[in-house]
């Protein structure tokens, strides 16, 4: 066992750090304020290969590994978590599914533009009445008598990048009597008739990552855009989330790291009672706890990324590893950003510094791609074999 990064991994980490600190960090506060989708920097990220890190070069990607993906995600998210969300959804919730289940035609049409950064993708699982209980979706896809297409009707909510997405990987019920085995996955083009977007959600954090409801009204989906087989959709959705949760874990580590580094600087500079506050044991205790939690979260995240390829090659799931990383890293991000605001005192609460933004951004990592409660349920089910 060794902890060194390969040359390729070091290269993507350095490239992501440089891009994030030079291009994203300076505009993060402004984007948080305006809630504007950062199309320009997202396009630049695409040109650097960040929108298709694990996708082979033949399909427009950077052809790197899952470790490279989490290293990039940490760097981007340390500058701005909203960019992290957009990039993670493209990479893990979309590209992964098509790479694993897509036909050659689907890869050419739906993967190449997204992996090369020319198009933006979304993932449509959640509905107004089904968040954690994802099987309970109502969006219905009915196959035509000649089998040439599906008519899709329904509503999806909390769709990340929904307001700007060119494509959406959408899950719908094809057999209402079959429960989880009656759900199928479809690749939709958002410029087609029958697809509409609701208002952008006003959010607590990751405000520049646009989120909205989308509605399908007699959307005609050609049968060749079914991803995988009919009835395989829920398995596809969950398998993809096993990858997505690693991206969110890396995002949480990035947010926590940014808050920690700011706190270290502040603790060294800020004086109280004639001495830097970092010399006080109550601040030192916070610094030590922040540091070790971030390191543990990063190691769990890297292990989950490392095991992803290994598990796939062996035909195994990476569920426990991904959920463990996501659970621990998101709770770490909350712990660290909370402590960082406290260390900064009044300045931590001020919008003139990024601490309160880190704190607001961190919260979503405990909610999306499965709440912390769902991660605990998933881990415990895997461990005990009981449900
Ligand atoms: N990989 C492959 N298959 C899986 C799987 C996985 N990780 N997890 C479950 N399955 C399969 C099961 O084996 C089962 O298949 P069989 O019927 O063939 O045995 C089937 O799926 C149903 O599984 P369960 O019986 O466990 O389903 P459940 O309803 O009891 O619970 C759940 C499932 C774990 C609670 C799941 O619904 C879940 O993860 N919920 C959270 C949903 C979520 O994370 N939503 C996030 C939305 S996306 C998002 O947030 C994106 C964004 O904005 C950035």
Brief synopsis:
The protein is built from eleven helices and ten strands.
Kindly describe this structure.
The structure is a single chain. This protein has 387 residues and is an alpha+beta fold. The protein has three domains: 7-120, Butyryl-Coa Dehydrogenase, subunit A, domain 1 (Orthogonal Bundle), CATH 1.10.540; 122-231, Butyryl-CoA Dehydrogenase, subunit A, domain 2 (Beta Barrel), CATH 2.40.110; 234-384, Butyryl-CoA Dehydrogenase, subunit A, domain 3. Helix content is 53%, strand content 15%. The chain has eleven helices and ten strands. The protein has helices spanning 7-34, 39-47, 66-79, 81-101, 104-115, 233-269, 281-313, 319-344, 346-349, 355-364, 372-384, and strands at 121-124, 140-143, 149-160, 167-173, 183-189, 195-200, 211-222, 226-227, 271-272, 275-276. It has a four-stranded mixed sheet with strand order 1-4-5-8. A four-stranded antiparallel sheet has the order 2-3-7-6, covered by helices on one side. A two-stranded antiparallel sheet has the order 9-10. Strand 2 (140-143) and strand 3 (149-160) form a beta hairpin. The longest helix has 37 residues, at 233-269. The model has no long low-confidence stretch (mean pLDDT 98). Residues 85, 89, 93, 123, 125-126, 132, 134-135, 158, 160, 180-181, 234-235, 238-239, 241-242, 317, 319, 368-370, 374, 378 line the site of acetoacetyl-coenzyme A. The site of acetoacetyl-coenzyme A has 26 residues, from helix 4, strand 3, helix 6 and helix 11.
């Amino acid at each position: 066992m060794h902890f060194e990064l390969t040359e390729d991994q070091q290269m993507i980490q350095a490239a992501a750090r440089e891009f994030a600190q030079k291009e994203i960090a300076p505009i993060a506060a402004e984007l948080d304020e305006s809630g504007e989708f950062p199309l320009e920097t997202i396009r630049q990220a695409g040109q650097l290969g960040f929108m298709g890190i694990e996708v082979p070069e033949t399909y427009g990607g950077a052809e790197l590994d899952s470790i490279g993906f989490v290293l990039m995600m940490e760097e981007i998210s340390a500058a701005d978590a909203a960019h992290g969300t957009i990039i993670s959804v493209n990479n893990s919730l979309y590209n992964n599914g098509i790479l694993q289940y897509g036909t050659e035609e689907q890869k050419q049409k739906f993967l190449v533009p997204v992996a090369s950064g020319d198009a933006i993708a979304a993932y449509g699982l959640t509905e107004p009445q089904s968040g954690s209980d994802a099987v309970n979706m109502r969006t219905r896809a009915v196959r035509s008598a000649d089998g040439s297409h599906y008519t899709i009707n329904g509503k999806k909510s909390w769709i990340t990048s929904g307001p700007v997405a060119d494509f959406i990987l959408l899950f719908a019920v094809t057999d209402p009597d079959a429960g989880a085995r009656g759900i199928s996955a479809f690749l939709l083009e958002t410029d087609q008739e029958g697809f509409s977007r609701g208002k952008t959600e006003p959010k607590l954090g990751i405000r520049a990552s646009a989120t909205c409801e989308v509605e399908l009204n007699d959307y005609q989906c050609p049968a060749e855009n079914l991803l995988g087989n009919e009835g395989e959709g829920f398995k596809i959705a969950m398998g993809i989330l096993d990858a997505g949760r690693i991206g969110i874990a890396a995002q949480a580590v990035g947010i926590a790291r940014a808050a920690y580094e700011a706190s270290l600087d502040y603790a060294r500079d800020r004086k109280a009672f004639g001495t830097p506050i970092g010399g006080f044991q109550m601040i030192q205790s916070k610094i030590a706890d922040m540091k070790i939690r971030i390191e543990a979260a990063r190691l769990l995240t890297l292990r989950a990324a490392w095991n992803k390829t290994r598990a796939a090659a062996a035909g195994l799931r990476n569920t426990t590893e991904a959920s463990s990383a996501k659970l621990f890293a998101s709770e770490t991000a909350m712990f660290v950003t909370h402590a960082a605001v406290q260390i900064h005192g009044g300045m931590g609460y001020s919008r003139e510094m990024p601490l309160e933004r880190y704190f607001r951004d961190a919260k979503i990592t405990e909610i999306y791609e499965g709440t912390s409660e769902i991660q605990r349920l998933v881990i415990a089910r895997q461990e005990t074999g009981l449900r």
